[in-house]
Write a structure and sequence with these properties.
Length: about 350
């Protein structure tokens, strides 16, 4: 039985380097075969080779040089640009507007040009980082591990204080008859269930880990019906509320905020189980930043992030305060990625 969105062929974010998954083959995205200056061979060829004949070799090579500069955040006009992105953990529309305060803050504090680059899905944000199209990203726990595995020297810099003890909510439509309990709700095995994105730490991977830990079964064995994938945390909450699915799982911060904003009616959907805590979201920096902006720039960036008390920035991130993290902070997530299997 196949597990849509979370099979080895489709689970976008889990690192194939850890033996967990491999990326889906998408003809619209270049396959990364070898590294060339932090970019894939296919991307290098696409950027440098076209209809130019042998006589135009010098021009072609010059074009390649420009592409390499762009991969390091430097435009053709020589003006350095820090490009950053974020996993689309909520509705993908309006990403640029949501993260504009972050871009503005970084530009002001670092005195550099900053550009936000939207990502269509979790995998896309990791691929952009791996290829050097972005040099900073607001990753989830799993996507951060994958990105740092892909780029030697990449560093986790900062996270929200909430991210050191993050958790997922298992939620249910009140018509299901389920009530909140300290015990894992095994009754959901025979109900319609939805994850968020297949690459989400709190919307798929860690919940699956806790399913395995509490039942001794992987998701394929545990659920009698194929789980769905809403694509985002807010979409999961709304799908359970309107009865499309009886049960779902999502980030606790998203659910709490939706209740607070009146988007979720507690009379229609309720939390039935909370997972144990785990580390999650983080800002991860590409080592190319020090090359582009000068040695010590990553350390300066980390300081700026940790000292951020800008209300608009913290609101965009749904965090109250930023705290220091390192790559080792997410070692437990990396271990889970080795164990969670969907085949």
């Amino acid at each position: 039985m196949k597990f849509p969105g979370c099979t080895l062929a489709h689970l976008g974010e889990l690192s194939f380097r850890r033996g967990l998954v491999r990326r889906p083959r998408d003809t619209k995205k270049p396959m990364k075969l070898f590294k060339t200056g932090g970019r894939s061979i296919s991307k290098t060829l696409k950027g440098c080779l076209g209809s130019a004949a042998i006589a135009a070799t010098a021009i072609t090579l010059s074009s390649c040089g420009d592409k390499d500069k762009e991969a390091d955040g430097e435009g053709a006009d020589g003006n350095a640009v820090l490009r950053f992105s974020a996993i689309p953990d909520k509705n993908t529309t309006g990403q640029a507007e949501r993260f504009k305060p972050v871009a503005d803050y970084l530009a002001k504090e670092l005195d550099v040009k900053v550009e936000f680059v939207p990502a269509s899905d979790y995998e896309a944000s990791v691929v952009k980082f791996e290829n050097g199209d972005i040099q900073l990203a607001w990753f989830g726990g799993v996507s951060g591990v994958q990105a740092r595995d892909a780029v030697e020297g990449a560093e986790a810099l900062a996270a929200g204080v909430e991210d050191l003890a993050f958790k997922s909510y298992f939620i249910a439509n009140t018509a299901s008859g389920l009530e909140k309990s300290d015990e894992f709700p095994v009754a959901i095995a025979d109900m319609t269930f939805t994850y968020g994105s297949s690459g989400s730490t709190s919307g798929c991977i860690m919940p699956s880990h806790f399913i395995m830990e509490n039942t001794g079964k992987n998701p394929l064995e545990f659920f009698s019906k194929k789980p769905g994938f809403s694509g985002a945390h807010d979409a999961t909450a709304l799908a359970v509320q309107d009865g499309t699915f009886q049960v779902g799982v999502l980030s606790y911060t998203t659910f709490d905020k939706m209740v607070e904003e009146g988007k979720i009616d507690p009379a229609k959907v309720k939390v039935i189980w909370e997972t144990p805590p785990f580390a999650d979201y983080n800002f991860t920096a590409h080592p190319a930043l020090n090359k582009t902006f000068g040695e010590g720039f990553v350390a300066k960036l980390k300081k700026v992030l940790l000292e951020c008390d800008d209300a608009a920035v913290l609101k965009a991130l749904d965090r109250s305060k930023m705290v220091e993290v390192t790559n080792e902070t997410f070692t437990p997530i990396a271990e889970v990625m080795k164990k969670v299997k969907f085949d």
